[in-house]
Amino acid sequence: MFLEKNMKGESKMLKKLLVPTDGSDSAYKAIYYARDLLKHKIAEEVVILHVGPAIGENWGFYGLSKADFELKYQCVLDDAGKRILRLAREPFEKEGLPVETVYLCGDLAETIVNYAEENDFKAIIIGNKGFSKIAELLLGSVCDRVIRLAKIPVMVIR
Question: Which residues 6+ apart lie within 8 Å of 53 measured at CB?
């Protein structure tokens, strides 16, 4: 499972868990699961990550790359992402548990996996369904892509 073993074969706690969130109900289930792992001392550190779209890179394809549009809507999306992270912190703060939040922009699955690998996370805990049903039909879910790309364990919360 996710628990590491020491030299004697005894389980020890996980060092770092990454929990990506888009603010959906499924993502909150993953957040509460991670909170409980931290609360019961199974995890040592939890980081909640929200990945917003990078408008300059992705939206130009649709002919929407004018500088004023980019600036205005990047700010709106950044504010929404920060609100999602603020709400995601609440279950930890109510229990007096430490949690870190990170906001990044880019491709959802690739950014999640790259951040996890670059920062030595031991596992990713992710909800199975997000908000983007149309994108899921066309491209596959973010959860599926994270599972395929990640080199560390991924726990999917339903």
Answer: 59, 77, 105, 106
